[in-house]
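User: Need the bound-state model for adenosine-2'-5'-diphosphate:
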Amino acid sequence: TGPIFRLENGIQMPGLGFGTFANEGSKGETHKAVVVALNAGYRHLDCAWFYKNEGEVGTGMREFLDANPSVKRSDIFLTTKVWNHLHEPADVEWSIKDSLRQLQTPYVDAFLVHWPIAAEKNADNTVKIGADGKYVINKDLTDNPEPTWRAMEKVYADGLAKSIGVSNWTEKGLKSLLSYAKVKPALNQIEIHPFLPQYELVSYCQSQGIAPVAYSPLGSQDQVPGTGEKVSTNKELNAIAEKKNATLAQVLIAWGLKRGYAVLPKSSNPARIVSNAKLITLTDEEFEAVNKVADKRHSRFVNMKDTFGYNVWPEEA
Ligand code: A2P
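Assistant: Bound-state model below.
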């Protein structure tokens, strides 16, 4: 279902993807959600080593493929990511192999550097947390991720990932990465919704042949600090959806696809997983009406500054 985006290396990426980030402790939820999503027609699954549920994605995908022999693994675009404390080259390789084992597949379609931050690890391979309760930053690899990117390139050359890319990177970080990359990042997965439209970063990525992919395209369920506003209760956005006889989620998904990037709506509710996959298209007027709400906004809901003890977006204070 929906548009397919062609990455610079020729790999085809379905525009509608399913986000699998789930609360820890809700065992079995991801497995069920993945089966529902694949049955609903999603052919793009977004995963990460950090989500600690890749085993469930793997069993869900396996269950679906076994029950639907006409669908092949190669019909699904599967993404995973390497977490911050695994940026040393040997760890990058270990990370993707661990993800592949859990996902029960010999390759992923995209392997991303989850954050532009490298952290130290403990001897038992867990993240090193400092006395302040925050990640202990590996300054060298954060300031110069070239060795990490070389390891990503090796994973690509070895065929463990059909494409490699990044997540949460800024234009500045991408420019630096492009200066030494032998294999260019094929994608940059970032938070995008009407309260964080990212017009400049999206255009920059598109101008460089780096496909933007939107996480939290529905704008989370959180409030904007200070104003208490929520995307989900925004009057103008809801009026657009109501007039169209669609859900707000469907409008937001359509807005992202019309802007030319893939979207990763996430839900653990079967009815919402299914309805989000019923794609609609926006007229130019409807598209502009969403743009009008988005204009000049910049409210980020996903910001790990407090956890990392490091600000990826210093310009945002
Ligand atoms: P739920 O799992 O209960 O459906 P994020 O923006 O961080 O990806 O989070 C998406 C949020 O939007 C989730 O909390 C999800 O909750 C909710 N959601 C997903 N689809 C819909 C929908 N169609 N209508 C309302 N809320 C939705």
